[in-house]
Every structure is written in structure tokens, then in C-alpha cells.
Amino acid sequence: MGLNDTQMTAFQIMDHQPPHTLTPAIVSLVAEIAEAVGRLSLSSGDNLRLLWVNRIRSIQGSLAIEGNTLSEEQITAILEGKPVIAPPREIQEVRNALAAYERLGEWQPAGESDLLEAHAILMRGLLDEAGLYRRGGVGVMQGEQVIHMAPPAERVPGLMADLLGWLKTNEEHPLIAGSIFHYEFEFIHPFADGNGRLGRLWQTLILSCWRPVLADLPVESLVHTHQEGYYRAIAESTARTDSAPFIAFMLERILEACRASTHQETPEVAPQVQRLVSLLERPLGRNDLMRTLGLRDAKHFRQHYLVPAMAAGLVEMTQPDHPRSPTQQYRRTAAGQRLLDNSKDTI
Q: Which residue did the predictor score with more confidence, 118 or 319?
């Protein structure tokens, strides 16, 4: 993601309007999500256990994108005050994220002081400049290559004031506004560290102000599953000076999360997911799973078996940091095992 003068000033020269195109696909996704959220609102009720499970998945997914290796089970243990053997920094990241998500309902999306406070909580004990805009240059690295150089530090306060001002007054649908803010925030990269996790948290906040049920939808977990697509959408949006690719990507993940969470609310897991979970006596690769299930259509397998099972926390990758690895395998989680155990008990 290179940076040039046109891209750097595109936000400002358009009267503080982030450049974006509302494609037919984006409009269609907004309509589908609105319908899915309606079903989700009717079915969710007061299932506090499910809300906590989804929140843990959200935190695990968002932190895993940044390299945190702790599992859902370890995060649950930290939440319950149990000892966990893991790198101290990763434990601190989890504690901070748990505290930040707990405060979500207290913050206003367009409030700069709220944004700075959220960063201070997320980065407490991890960064000297927690809660403060960066004072130096920062770039996003991929291996040894710089793929994005953020605007100079002296421009950050003004760019953030413009972005938050736009967020307060814009008339876009919250699903679109949240995705635009997320992209623009990552482009500005206002902090020395923690930009990714805060950008994802803030989009969740924007969504929850529209529909509170979305506060605990595990969108971050699905972003982690599609991590390469996430970075590709950011790069493509920057190259075009148009956030449409990123908007479409995020809306697809939100729709996936709505559909998966609706399935979670039903008493029984979809038969396809049950079959997949039952097969994983040991870790297996995608081709082995499709062959055992008697499937040939990779898209059908992904949409109806793998994605719902992972979104429900029943199946996980053996190499979550390398989702497209040719040696990637999938294994049953503790929740998947409980599902099977409960199914046996009802026979």
C-alpha cells in the first residue's frame, strides 16, 4: 500500500468526505444484513452465555490477527481468574481487551476522548504512548517490506478530527459508515501500536449503536479466518483511493456472523456442521475432509460446513496465523467436543 499526495489528501479535498463508491453489491449486502439482524434480534433473547462465548471469540480473533496465540479456552480461563501459562504480554493483551469490550456501551463513536480512552485501556502496560496519538512516523510491514507508510505524525490530530467530525454528521447507513471509518482509521494509523484492534473495536461500537445485538457478534473471529482478504481489501482500497473493496469485505463478514449466530440460537446445530465436527477425531486438511464427506464442490463445503462450524467455535485451524498454508488442518474445539457429548446424552 503505497502513499502519494493524492491519497494523503483525498479525505480533506473532498470537504472531509471519505471517498467511497456504493456498488450494487454493497447495497445488496446492507439489505441482507438488515434482514438477518432482524431475525437475530428476535431469536437472541437474554442468552448471556452465548453473548460471552461470542465476545470471547471476538477478542480471540482480533488479537490473533496481531499475533496473539491464546486460545478461546485460555481467554475464558483468564476471564474466570484462573492461572494461564502463556507469554505475559499476550495475557496482558487479553485482559486489556476484556476490559475494553466491557466498556463498549459507555463510549460514543464520534468522541475523541472516548477513542483515546479506549486505546489507553487496550494498550495499558504494552505501550508507553497508550491513549496518545503517535509522535513519529509509522509503517505497516509485511516481512521485510513496507506495504503502507502512514501520514506524518503532525497531520494525525487534524486527520482524526476530520474523520470523527464526518462520523458525527454523515448520513450513511451505519453498516457503511462503520466500514468507512474502519478503513480510514487504518489508513491514518493514528497510534504507534494497537491500530488494528482499536479499528475493529470501534466498528463494533458503531454497529452496536445501530443495533445493540451486534455488540457481541463475533465479526472479528471471521475477519481472522479471512485475514489475508482483510489486508488485501485494505490494499486494494488504498490503491483505488476508494474504500469500496474494504466496505464489501467487512459487510460480507458481518453477514456471515449474523447467519452463523442465528444458527447458534437454534436448539440443534445444522446437520452439515454436526457431520463435520463428528469426523474430526484427529486434525484433517480440507481435501481429506471433503473426501470423507463425499463432497466435490469446495464452495459448498466452505459455505455450509467449514465457515459455520468455525464461526460457531466448534472447529478451529491448526495454523491460525497462516490461514492459507498448504499444510493447514482443522481440529475439533472443546466446544465441538461438548456438542458431541451432549448429542450422545440425548440418544
A: 118
